[in-house]
Every structure is written in structure tokens, then in C-alpha cells.
Amino acid sequence: MNSGRLRKAPENFIARDGVARVFAEARNGRRDFLRGAFAAAAAGAALPAAAQAAAPNDGDPNILNLPEHTRGLGQAVATDGYGKPSKYERNVQRRQSPGLTQTTQASVSFAPLQSLFGIVTPSGLHFERHHQGWWDIDPSKHRFMVNGMVKNAKVFTMDELMRLPAVSRFHFIECGANTGMEWGNVAVPTCQYTHGMLSCSEFTGVPLITLLELAGADLKNGRFVLAEGGDGSSMTRTIPMSMIRSGEVLVAYGQNGEMLRPEQGYPLRLVVPGVQGVSWVKYLRRVEVGDQPYGAKDETVHYVDLMPDGQHRQYTSIQECKSVVTTPSGGQQLLDKGFYNITGLAWSGRGKVKKVDVSVDGGRSWRTARLETPVLSKCLTRFNIDWVWDGKPAIIQSRATDDTGYVQPTYRQLRAVRGTRSIYHNNAIQSWLVEESGEVKNVQLS
Amino acid sequence: MNSGRLRKAPENFIARDGVARVFAEARNGRRDFLRGAFAAAAAGAALPAAAQAAAPNDGDPNILNLPEHTRGLGQAVATDGYGKPSKYERNVQRRQSPGLTQTTQASVSFAPLQSLFGIVTPSGLHFERHHQGWWDIDPSKHRFMVNGMVKNAKVFTMDELMRLPAVSRFHFIECGANTGMEWGNVAVPTCQYTHGMLSCSEFTGVPLITLLELAGADLKNGRFVLAEGGDGSSMTRTIPMSMIRSGEVLVAYGQNGEMLRPEQGYPLRLVVPGVQGVSWVKYLRRVEVGDQPYGAKDETVHYVDLMPDGQHRQYTSIQECKSVVTTPSGGQQLLDKGFYNITGLAWSGRGKVKKVDVSVDGGRSWRTARLETPVLSKCLTRFNIDWVWDGKPAIIQSRATDDTGYVQPTYRQLRAVRGTRSIYHNNAIQSWLVEESGEVKNVQLS
């Protein structure tokens, strides 16, 4: 159903004059909005078309060609104690980009953004970024240590952590390298691969500041915390104490109502709202309080921004304001002219999304989209806007503004500062070309 | 981990004097909050206890007893294109109450509320209520009709519906019979079975009013809409036009970011915020506009409230303000005294939750809990509050107030009006008895 192709609607599912008029005419009965589909209904049949169009009549005139699901007895409750999506959705998967990495353990899978709705990412489709593969760690054996500049170093079991005061909050997580293949030119065809290192969940856990206080951390001189993961990559990242002190940084065990998934660091991961995903250390086993940045491998060699002058920027971990239209998007196919709901996602590592403007003419004119509520800080925001496609080539873009006033840049603006040799922190405006054939392609405007 | 038992923490995980003092003392280094667990750490070892406590040393002194997940290479990305929970969480399931119904097709499975966090219910654990079993209907064959008092009856394909203006909103859904077994006395031991016909999701779909307008519905004289499902139960329910006109009622295809699950009516269900689940018609195939209530079987014979005078109340479909503590709750076991995070859920079919009070002494005294944000209309709200258990018997209750000022009633108050012979719409305050042994039991105060 939702596999990335927009299928053909009846011919008169078209309204060059705009949606408002179509709706008004429909209300007044002067126009049949979807006439092609209504031949049967117009004859006055009270029986739904679904019933008419279904299973063959098995000879009993009383059965009236009812489909099997209307005639029969369905499946039992709790057929699955933990349910699965419909078999018709099996094409909606997170996927690895073939050839992107040399191993499948130090690699990425991308979330199918073009098939998703709202702001919650189903945990089964959450993007993955592993540095040494994923593990399913026994939580009864897992320990979490707080040490460094603390009065009493402490080690917590999961049970101890889960008895402490908890909070639940919705936040996006984006890999710093999301859209990273697009710096120089168009590299991949679909929204899944351009923007799919992005997901959003409701996280539950203990504010890290609570745990530091329990250990008697030196919150005055201890200006940085090192977070360390327990998998083979021993991921270590520096988190500034200012961020922790705000209470935003969580030691999380819950995600979208249940325990974290193994691929997301079960049983414990750091949640660092607004910051690139690599700092959300998975399989979290230790935090150490210190008085200076730790300069770990993954913040000095990787996850730095190569600038045009050959130097690199470091500790630029906040994900700036960004957005992307997810439908229509690259790889999809509009099979006729007429009305479409343009929809997409916007987010900012600095706070809330204030506004999303959408263009269908490559940025010459813009209309402001409708934001779905709730609009939350450092969280995905879903936007929607009406569009009537006239069948001519169109370039669709979205441009987000956050509540600091920061406006998402064009590629021209971004490259003027950053050049084209970076991997990380590409938040430029994305362009999708709708060709006359209805095919949607990834393009970059010069 | 999260299977409903709260495991033993060190002995001095206790603070009769309250959490604030424990935290202050920890900060000042005068008290070791979790001393028992910190023996190893106190020796100054920099190596996490997780590492020390793990796999046997295989003879190589450099390996330092590191656990396998720190030494080895993990599993590949996209091992599952659609991921699953940890194997250690396999006990967290939705479950049927044995013997509650005569068949497993016309039955119920309950969500494991005692194991969930935040407000989003994982779709795999969403409660089920089927009247004739569930189906996985081919969406390319599904049709949705609008007829009755309309200028032009219409039939929509899924593709047509999914091109129309969409909205996304978080709402709870509660079966009208939730907590229905508890009218007369304590019937079931756990929160899963007392309150588990309750779930909450982000729904995406088209406002029903949009579809009625497209069909040129008579919105003045057409005061009611009949919604009809396509499964064997042919569920039919009357929805007042006043509710639809507000734009709240959705014809939904999306749930928690993906397409509806088959058990939840894939590919189309009605979303009627604040109203009992039976009106959220699954496998939705038709709505008919009429000028009076339809008096369908499931609103005249079932889902009515038997009153003490022998008459029954009808069309009482809005789920009034209610709450429940999910931890600690019936069937759980507190294995020691000390600090606990009391947590639970509150909701109202009339609007937002304004306040949740919690008592640990059976309602003699109350403290106001902290509400997690966002607090949304007709949506679950997560509350948390600190508690230090002194090891004596305690009765834990929560009492929600919504933004209309309505206060959740006691059993005494509810029964004074409704008697004890109802099945539906029990929103009384739930009591959990913590015995000296730490065992938590479902009790009712007279």
C-alpha cells in the first residue's frame, strides 16, 4: 500500500483551480470529485463496492459475493503476543545502502521515511548505526558506573536505575552523517537514503544529573562527562556538563513504551537531545566526570567537519534546523495530475520548529505548511500542505525555521561556508524534481 | 527485566526520611546511597563492574575477563528489516484472560500496562477486541463508501484516501468494558487484566468531515453518521455529527508511524477521540449520514449501562476521567524497603488531564504527581511521583482530575449512582495493597 508508489486515481481526480474549489463544488453537488470510481455507487446500490468487487459467488444467492473477511471467522486474539505489520507492508523495511560500508557490522541501515506517518518512528524501522555490530545484552548482568570527579564512585544495576525518578520525553535522533553523501552532488535516489538516518521516539529514563548528584559529582569543576559504551567499539564521547545540568540528558531504558531495542543499545543508552546520534552512546556502561574535553577518537578523527581551508571543525555536535519532504520524494511516481497532500518532517537541535515553508517551483515562491501538533523541542515535527499538480515539471522543497530564528540554508549558502568535502552536518534544503512523466528524482539546484 | 517483578536492591536502598534527604546526603558524601553495590567500585577500580562480572577469563591476561559483547564482533545492521524486542523481554506480551470468553475470535487480549513506559503503546502490544476475529485485508481491494443523506454517494480507494489532506494526532483508545470485571468485587489480580483494554497511539488519517463534504453531505439535517465495519461482525455504531463537525473524528490508516496493524483494522479504521473503542470501527467500509441515531445491536443490546433500577443507559460512550498506577501494581513484588518511583497513566475522554493525586495510605492523604509532557487532549498522560516504602502495609491509589473539573470517583461514589451490575464504564479509583511481604494485590476499599 505504502511502498513508495502513488497509484493511479480516476482521471477527474484533478483540479487545476485548486482544492478549495473542488471541495466547494463537491459540497454543492456540481462536480463529481471522484466520478470514475462511483459508477456502481451512483446506481443507488446500498451494498459497499468492497463487497461487490470481492470473492466469486459460491452459488448461494444470499451470500451476495461478500468477501471472505465478511463471511468468515477471522483469526484469534493474541495470535501473536507481540504483533507484526500486515503482510502487505512487507516492503516497508529499514535497508542498508549496498556498498556504502565494507562490513555489515560497522554500517548503517536507513529508515523508510517515505512510508512513515506522523512523528513516531516504529521501533522496528528505527535507523541503525553500529560501529562493531549489535548485541542483545542480558540486563541482569549489565552495570552502569559513575566515576571520575565524584565523591563516591557508584555502580548501578538495571533494577536500581529503574527504581529512580523517571521522565519520558519525545526526541529525534539523527546521525551526524545523515545526508552526508550529498555534499558534492546527488548521490542516492530516495529519501530513505538521503535522510533516513533519522528517527524519533518517546524515551524514558533517569536524568543523568540525578545520577551524578547521587555520586556526589563535582558539578562546579567537572565541566565535562565522558560517556562510554560496552560493545566492541567502546564508543566514547564527551558531553558538556552545561547540557547535563539542564536535566535534558537521560540515561534511558525505555523507547516508544517498551524497553530499548537491542539495535538501539538495550538495556541502556544515553539520550542527548538535539545532538548527533553518535553521542547517544549505546550499551552505556560508564560515565566519567572530568574538567576538560576527552578528545576521544570519535570526536577528533571522526565526526569532525573538514572546512574549505583544510582545517577541521570539532565539537559541532548540535544538529541544526533541517527538513525534508517525504511524499512526494525521490523514487516515487505520480501517476496522474490533480490533488496531492505534500507531507514531510522538520526538526532542530536548538529547540522547536517555528515554521516550514514549501515551494513547488524550486524556491521561487513559498507557502507556509500546516504543522501537526504537538510541536515539541528537539523532536520531529510533521508538516502537511495541499498541492494540485498540473502535470508540468515541478521542483518540491521545504525550508524550516526554528524558534531561535535560524533558517535552513540552501546548498549554495551551506557550501559558501562549508565547501563540499564534509561528511557531517549537511542540513541543506532538499529538492525533489517531479518530471512530466510523474517520476520523482533527487536533484540539487546550483 | 521488565517482567513485572521489582528485584532486590541493596539493603540501604532505604530512606525513611525521604528522597530529598537521601539525595542531599549523597551529594555531600555523608551517605552511600547504594553502598552495598559499590564495594568493587570503592576499591578504585576504573574497570566497569560489568566487565569484571562477566565472561570467564579464557587464559589471555590481556583480555581482562571482558564480556563477549566487548571483545567480539556483533550482529549486522538490518539483520531484521523490521526489528524485534530483546529476547530478554519475551515475557512482555498482550494476553487473553483465560476463560473470559467462549471463543478466541470474539475475545480480548490485554496490554501489559505494568511493563510499559511513557504514553505510546507499542503497536505489537496494543490491546485487541475482536467480535469475529481479525483479518489482513488486501488494501488494493478495500473500498470506503460515503452514502445516505449526501448529494453524491462516493466510494474511495485507499490510494484516493491517502492523497487527501491528512492530520496526525495522539489519542488513547479504551474499551468501554475496561475494568468491567471489577464492578462487584475484585476479579483479576493484575493491572494488565484490570486496565489493559487501554492503549495510546499517534493516528494519521483524513478528518471524516472532509470526506462528508466531498460527498456533499447534508450537514444540517444529517445529525448522525452510521459507521460500518467490513469484518464478519459487521460492527455498526452511531456517531453524532456534532463530534464529526469538530474535525476530531478521523478515517485513519496510520498508527505510530506506520500503517495500522491488521488487528487494529488494517487498512482503515475510524478514530473517535474520547469515545469507547467499539465506536472506532475497524476494517471501516462505509459511513451513512442520517437524521437520527441508528440503534444498532452494539449500542442497544451491548455497550449499555444497567442501572440499579433495572433500566439501562444508552449512548454513554464518552470515557470519563480515569487513572491507574501501573508500578507498583497487582502481581508485582517489592523485595525490599526504600525508594520507588510510583508511575501510572491518566486520561479523560473530555479533554486534558489537569492533575493526578497519589495516595499511599488508601486515600487518607494525597500528594500531587508530576505529569510528563506533552499533556494532550483525549490522550494518555504519564505521571510519576517519589515514594519511600517503610516496609509496612500500604494502599496505593491514583485520582485524576480533568480540565472540565471532573474528579475520578471512588468505588463508593460510583456505585451510589451506578450500582454493581454494569459491565461498562467503570472509572473508579484503583487500589493496590502492598503487603508487608512486598507482595502487591488488587483490593477494593468499601
Automatic annotation (TrEMBL), chains A, B:
EC number: 1.8.2.1
Enzyme class: oxidoreductase
InterPro entries on file: Ig_E-set, MoCF_OxRdtse_dimer, Mopterin_OxRdtase_euk, OxRdtase_Mopterin-bd_dom, OxRdtase_Mopterin-bd_sf, Sulfite_DH_SoxC, TAT_signal
Keyword presence, Cell membrane: no
Domain Oxidoreductase molybdopterin-binding: 135-294
BP-aspect Gene Ontology terms: sulfur compound metabolic process
Cofactor: Mo-molybdopterin
Domain Moybdenum cofactor oxidoreductase dimerisation stretches: 320-430
Alphabetically ordered keywords of this record: Metal-binding, Molybdenum, Oxidoreductase
Pfam family, one: Mo-co_dimer
UniProt keyword annotation of Oxidoreductase present: yes
GO MF term list: heme binding; molybdenum ion binding; molybdopterin cofactor binding; sulfite dehydrogenase activity; sulfite oxidase activity
NCBIfam families tied to this protein: sulfite_DH_soxC
Record protein name field: Sulfite dehydrogenase
Organism of derivation: Ramlibacter lithotrophicus
Record lineage: Bacteria, Pseudomonadati, Pseudomonadota, Betaproteobacteria, Burkholderiales
